[in-house]
Amino acid sequence: MSNQLTRRLALLADEQYRDVLRGGLRGIERETLRVQPDGHLAHTPHPAGWGSALTHPEITTDYAETLAEFITPAENDIATTLQKLDGIHRYAYSRLGDELLWSQSMPCQLPAEEDIEIAWYGKSNLGMLKHVYRRGLALRYGKAMQCIAGIHYNYSLDERLWRVLAANEGAAGKALSPVAYQSEAYLSLIRNFRRNSWLLMYLFGTSPALNSSFLRGRPHKLEPLSADTLYLPYATSLRMSDLGYQNDAQSGLRPHENSLDSYVATLTHAVNQPYEPYQKIGTKNASGEWIQLSTNVIQIENEYYSTIRPKRVIRTGERPIQALCNRGVQYIEVRCLDVDPFEPVGVGLVTGRFLDAFLLYCALEESPAISEQEGELLARNFARAVKEGRKPGLTLTRDGAEIPLRTWGEELLERIRPAAELLDKLRGGTEHVDALAQQAPKLADPDRTPSAAVLRALAEHGNSFAAFGLAQSERHAAYFRAHPPTADEEAYFTRLAEQSLAEQADLERTQTGSFDDYVKAYRASNLCPNHA
Predict the structure, then answer these.
(1) What band does 532 get if pLDDT is binned at 50, 70 and 90?
(2) pTM over 0.85
(3) What's the topology of domain 3-524?
């Protein structure tokens, strides 16, 4: 361990800081396609019983009308977060009819592009802004890519913890304001995450195969597994490979996470920088209908695809970058986790416990700035892990030399162990150390990984991604339908649904001004005073 990590772990182990370490929050966003009983994409609107996708705090849509997104409240314990996620699923199924929630990250058998409906949020200016943004995504990336689902893990540490660390670091800790110190600490976490996130893909990737309809005739180097399924024999997560969230405009967009200022400046530039192919398309079609919000590299900040983001809860009328500028980083959002097809809610408690130890390690360990050259190396390591992570003898690059993935992974588990032990000391159990221990066999034997388990399950279903996905979706549906919401949960979600519908109706009734003026004002809003 580095001196910094040893010192910080010893400090936080002190009894007086127990409540500080306990105070962080965990939230999960789970995406999932609604499908018909035959496993094909549903074509129905967002279920009325779920409420308004525009204003509901826990049940919304992502890209497509049929791509649901379930958002938990933030909780101190990931076990509580997962209970809340389970409750959302059980209520959702009670209002879903005979449809199913797709069990995989990669989409089901998809129809033609024109038959994938973009999410609709009503006629308010805010709702139309969200809809037109998604029209732009369709133009830029294609609709199939936007139907990929994932798990987003929102993580924060108690703000008092950063103040404890700053006070313990003497003059260096006092050189920054509390807000600036916290922001830079989260960016340090992000840099360490980038150095080590290949391990998450190896340990938890579950998308080694996909339905052949997803590629839409694009060139690829995948191998046929069956008539309807393509794969790579050693892949862990095709979702996170270059088959996923990629396009030419974003290929050169690499926000610098060495400081909040440089991160904000890069994204601000991308939101304001014209991109010639998009300029040729324009923002409206020949009929005067909006088809994208702008012709810039990205339409809004959220279009930047990343495995991890610094975040801050936004206020009404505020944009994400403005929130970061005005009040600093509040939490981080991990975006690279595949949906686990063997878990009804898409992610398991052991994964959550491991992530908590992994992220605490990333937060406390030394984290020097990442040069452009190192950034490219880290991207290559990540790409190797997602496309050939289970390949015998696979090596990654570290400190200018090749090191076996297994060796580095085992070293990382040992480095993370003290963070897991600290979390267990806080709880009085062994859950985090146990979660760590369950990962070691995967490094010793690639056949123990979830991606290998998926390939075995595919073989049991004729090597058909569609057949396996449908079988798992049916299994999960049976579980949720056998465990309907409690009376309290029913009342809670019914109230949220009714309130959200009333809020949307109120927005549509009271808004003023044209949509053209609304977009103009949105685009003209000063993202950040120092970087406009």
Answers:
(1) very low
(2) yes
(3) Creatine Kinase; Chain A, domain 2 (3.30.590)
